[in-house]
Amino acid sequence: MNYTLHQLEIFLKITQLQSVTKASEALYLTQPAVSIQLKKFQEQFKTPLFEIVGRKIYITEFGEEIAKAAENILNEVQAINYKALSFQGELAGKLKIAIVSTAKYVMPYFLSDFMNQNKGVDLIMDVTNKAEVVRALENNEVDFAMVSTIPGHLKINRIELMENKLFMVAGKDYKLKGKYLSYSEFQKLPLIYREQGSATRLAMEKFIDSRKISTYKKIELKSNEALKQAVISGLGCSIMPLIGIKNAIANGELQIIPVQQLPITTNWNLIWLSSKNLTNIAKALIDYIEGNKASIIKKHFNWLDKY
What we know:
The protein is an alpha/beta fold. The protein has eleven helices and eleven strands. 43% of the residues lie in helices and 22% in strands. Strands 3, 4, 5, 6, 9, 10 and 11 form a seven-stranded mixed β-sheet that branches. Helix 1 crosses helix 4 (61-87), helix 2 crosses helix 3 (31-42) and helix 5 packs across helix 11. The longest helix is centred in the N-terminal third of the chain and has 27 residues, at 61-87. The relative contact order is 0.13.
């Protein structure tokens, strides 16, 4: 047998995604190139690795076993690369971060220069809702989490990054009566919420409940992008983080509706368990952010000061 690491990587990715097309996209290769390597890999085994039924690929039991072996081999190769870099005095290894979905508009800016300076660091960033982020942190599955609401039941350390402002927004065709949206008008609006477990939803519900505003129609969507598109289309209004709607406001697709006692202001925080045995990479990231936070905010987020 004379298979290559490249072929192992391709077959593993196909197994994980159950699709040649998705694997080619994930690996930044053309579909024909992936198909050719898959064919060459199969030719080295007498037992089928996969079956094609219709247009769908199914991995055989033998193929699943080969995929597990491939994953182990690739992990060992990666470990060798990390060790080589470590012996050269460079940071090397994995950095795992879980962030709430709206934080995807913030966290990359605090990571980009750090990652460019440390080529041996591999970033794994999971973007999900607050409940899943806290669960991953609590189970020690990640080094850091980025949230706007601190989980009270965990002992954590944190770096406060920047403000997170949430405004009432509507589509471009909404006509406001008066200077501010009255609570009586508020009650007539169809409102769009994030899903249960979202910090944005929690903040929105807390604001509405504290002012005893009754709502007649509620729509729930599972991502900030889907919610934004729904508001743009005129499906309803919502209280949304400003950080995720910059372009939509600038090009006139969305408008901020003035409401007394809005915006809601929280803070983005990078948090980690107090009991966490931090890796050298994690310690280096903390030092980097603490030393560069102000300049990153000034460079990338000074537009927030207008609101």
